[in-house]
Amino acid sequence: MDEEAPLASEEDDEDWLAAEIATGLTFASSDAVMLTEAKGLHPMARSIAVLVIVVSLIGFANGLDFASPEQGVVRPDEFVYAMSRAAPEDTAIFRGSVIDEQGQGLENVTVYVQWESGNQWVFAEAQTDVQGDYLLENLTPGLVRVDLLLDRENHTDVLSNRVLLSPPALFEPYGFTTLRFDFPSSARFAAAPCNNGAETCEVRTIDNSAAQMEHPMMDPAAAGLYVVIGFGFMGLALISGGFGVMSLRLGSLPLLRVGAVLSIFTMGHFYSACILGLTAVILTFLVPRRLVPVMT
Length: 296
Hints:
The protein is 39% helix and 25% strand. It is α/β, with parallel strands linked by helices. The strands form 3 sheets. Strands 3, 4, 6, 7, 9 and 10 form a 6-stranded mixed beta sheet that branches.
């Protein structure tokens, strides 16, 4: 029984083949070609990678500009002023101290703050304490005029400055501006010319606001934050450019897309990196699949 089973199977196969031939079995070739995903980036994706690298360089240059506050195209005061224009009213706190030429705090100095709101001028004032410290709350962020008034030696000495009040940062409810004013000596006020051209005057004024029209006084911490933002832009630009280079080397479209997204946040001068980076992101979704036939 065990030795006859294979013979029966072979006979069945021969009978099946004979039956198929009798019915007109034929063999035909097909034009179908098996395709597979090609390695490496599509030429269009390579062009996008070059664009991402260029955008990252633009963002890096913008970061260098921020990190060089004294020489950059955009200065810290311009940046803070642009932010203050969108800030709500009564969200600025102005504090600091007034000291004399010996570095001692001046008491009873009137800190008089004025700013324009609509078609009228609004003011607030405070007195310095024994240590020469002052504090004013519920001010409007932006440009203000600060007059420091001190009565001494039968005169009223007035020191005027142009100050930029910082707006709230991120999710903070208030923006803080801390400044120290060096109040000139009585001799310097005596040497200053009177406003009406007279030889002597009861109110003696030293007005620094004319020299501070382009770059007003501002909180040093705000300027420091400006520099930190610049280093952040440079870091994002380096990471974005790194993703662009790696996508060229590894042929990875997802890496290229990540680099394009990061390049948007480097901003660039006049938002150039934002626009070009967004363009690169959109183009990454339009790259066609690169297919090649399977080699047999």
